[in-house]
Prior knowledge:
By secondary structure, the protein is an alpha+beta fold. The chain has one domain (2-88): Lrp/AsnC effector binding domain/regulation of amino acid metabolism (RAM) domain (Alpha-Beta Plaits), CATH 3.30.70. Helices cover 30% and strands 33% of the residues. It is built from 3 helices and 4 strands, in the order E-H-E-E-H-E-H. Strands 2-3-1-4 form a 4-stranded antiparallel β-sheet. It is globular, with a radius of gyration of 15 Å. The two termini are 21 Å apart. The mean pLDDT is 88.
Amino acid sequence: MVTVIVLINAELDRIRAVAQAISETDGVQAVYSVAGRYDIIAILRLPSLEDVESLVPGVVDRVPGVTASETLVAFRTYSTAELDAAYDLGLS
Length: 92
């Protein structure tokens, strides 16, 4: 699985609608409205990089109200829960 973080800017009056539409897309794990440089952050979990290529420019960027996006591909997860699971399996 590939984890992808999409940083999204949207038209101010469409932020809620954009977030809702993106949250209903297959592969989207979570969507957050945020303060700062971006309006919305979407966390995607996809089977392959090819899926990223089709989902982000093909679906996310085409949601009415999206004005720009930046896509980050995660190489490794360092969450406490996943690290603890690895230690329990003796993988450290």
